[in-house]
Amino acid sequence: MGDELSIRNIGILAHVDAGKTTLTEQMLYKSGIIKSLGSVDKGTAHTDGLEVEKQRGISVKTAEANLVWKDEEINIIDTPGHMDFSAEVERSLGVLDGAVLVISAAEGVQPQTEVYFKALKTMKVPTIIFINKIDRIGADVKRVLGEIKRLLTDATFLLDVMEDKDAFIEALADRDDMILEKYLEGEKIDYPTLKERLADLTGECNIYPVLYGSALKDKGVSKLLDLLVELIPSASRGKTDELSGIVFRIDRDRASGKWTYVRLYGGRIGTRDLVHNHTKNMDEKVTRIKKLKGRKQIDADEIVAGEIGCISGLSSAVVGDIIGSPLEIPKVPNIAKPLLTVKVFAKRKEDYIRMVEAFQELEEEDPFLNMQWIREKNELNIQIMGMIQLEILESILKSRFDIDIEFGKPSIIYKETPAKKGMGFEAYTMPKPCWAIVRFEIEPMPRGSGLSYESRVRTEDIKLRYQREVEKQLPITLKQGLYGWEVTDLKVTLVEGEDHVMHSNPGDFLIATAMGIMNGLSNTGTVLLEPIISFRISVPEDMGGKVLNDIAQMRGSFDSPIISKGMFIVEGEMPLSTSIDYPIKLGIISGGKGVITTKFSHYSEVALDRGAIRERVGVNPLDRAKYILYARNAIK
After folding, report:
1. Which residues contact residue 476 at a Cβ distance below 8 angstroms, ignoring those fewer than 6 apart?
2. Furthest-apart CA atoms within the chain: distance in Å
3. Which of 24, 69, 27, 74 is nearest to 226 (CA)?
4. Looking at the predicted structure, is the pLDDT value of residue 40 above 80?
5. E strands within 46-155?
6. What is the reported pTM?
7. Which residue, of 52, 181, 447, 469, is most buried by count of CB atoms within 10 Å of its CB?
8. Cβ of 630: how many Cβ atoms within 10 Å?
């Protein structure tokens, strides 16, 4: 495939209220896509399409728009800033060629700013930092630049030096050996060479250009658009002929049904093509393709590598599915982690089944909901990021499905991890016909490492297809440990096993794995883990002592506080379980003057009496006889 396509998929990311959507509005307006500027405060922003977004003045869903600037095509991906909707940002990261990280000149670097920049840096997504709201009271660009260097990266490059050639050369020489060598040897360095090196260094993520302005007052917006086409590499680079794409969004239209948004990293998809869903291991036929032009979707015959397409016909696809080969798909860091679980009830009993079906549909669009439907109890549980998400879900269920719902009291999502190294064993050979013998080594691993699996068993002992069943069953079994919570941060090794040429079938190894793993966990024991959040609290100076006492009462820890301009600022960590209601309390005791911002930090050990035990769903594999009967009926 040639390099004729010149397109950039650019994400706009920011902590909530940094002005990200206003910036997107200005970019669309200046490129001629919209004829008048919308307003977030007035609920008229063009990229806030949901009614609840207009009412609340915050972005809930990722929005896409297409524009042309200096004959270059740009897909703008406007992401939500609020932590409760960080799953939307995580899904968008996998489709980006570049990003604009927006930081308020008044509020500076905030928790989600750090989270998003770390992810962009990890993925090596070329990023321009835009310091916004320089016209605001309290704006302090110098302070914010210091925070960027301290909290994000010291590889910044202030773009205003480009106006002075000598200053441009000196600044770039500090970052680039090639320019430094030319400078020291007295060679003449022209502007095109400087810009080319700046673009190379930006594209390699060795430099993060910094621009400041005001989206509201249209300061710096045209310059930002110029820089996007000058400094961010186009998506046409690195294309392959092999089909490779990722599903990052699902939409539904009442007239035309389900639409799947796919970013292609390799190959092409045309109408009536049969495409392979690698995640589902199935083929589906494309019936229709649309692409963004401006803010409208237009019919297209195909999409090619680098483009984003909206595809009809992929009825089984869900967000996160890989289309074609997974080799070209970038690995996305986990920045969204549901920390709360909540029961959902239909206000009208006759709406119960419709409510379940509605959440099944929403889970296709947001897999982080992790819906759990316990049929025998008529109980529906979902996982959420925070309390604002509940308001949004309630609004969506009403507006989209005409279902009135209510929620139970949210509870903390704990986890478990093995207390020590140990073995698990199962010989599932009765009642015949069945034969599956497995022995596992289970060992705890560092916090945040998740689950890793290894097999040391020869295929002569357990056929490869049976070993695949073991690996498939493993994460399913570990969804519920000894205390009912997901088991994490462990390594499981299949060290021994046996199949039978006549009596074994794949289902036997599913059953044996569940019983063998639970046997192993009963031998190792498990430790309860609780979520810990990082916080930053700002209150009037005279309230500092009260806040520190509150933190101690919540089992928190903190760094040395800072007192600046009459405000007391403290940062630290504390358990979510003890602090979930503290933002409300802080607002009350400070008369609305206190501000707390938080982000997930890590999971940490907690005593069982300070945590919670969760009721198990289904039959426990430790009840061997009952589980075999239950599982064999389920498999038939």
Report:
1. 514
2. 86
3. 69
4. no
5. 63-69, 72-78, 98-104, 127-132
6. 0.86
7. 469
8. 16
